[in-house]
Here is the input.
Amino acid sequence: ETPIQGVNTPFLYFGQWKSSFAWHVEDVNLHSINYLHFGKSKQWYVVPPKYASQLEKVARYYFPQHHRNCSEFLRHKTSVISPKTLMYHNIPVLKIVQHAGEFMLTFAKAYHSGFNYGFNCAESVNFATENWIPKGIESNYCRCMPDTVQIDMKKLVKKLKKLKSGERVSPEKNK
Here is the structure.
């Protein structure tokens, strides 16, 4: 297995006052967990997964040039839309404040964004559960960035079926 920082190995973030993260879902629509080790709180805005396509539609409306350049432009993590704008378009936005010592979970294909109230240190990693598989199968990826994460979902599902049936699965080399 190839280590992919933040996906299958943890990623450390240092935030500062008003530093932010734009609307995005995790690579391959994975779940994520974020732990705030110390420092000031982190403000999160989260859109439930069932509203993901509505958020994408609104983003295409406000950023048509970005969409023309890359159909998966939200994976670039550069598009900021006010939660009030999303709510205007009937997209529910949950507002959560994460304090030091707390975990924040995002579900598969849950768009999220936010900012830091001051200097802090957080650690995050993606993870998969069985209920993630349909969201992983339907995920797309950015074709314009060289470090785009991709998972061969057909191969993964095939391996999982073998494991469930008790069949032996040999480890792959150099992948």
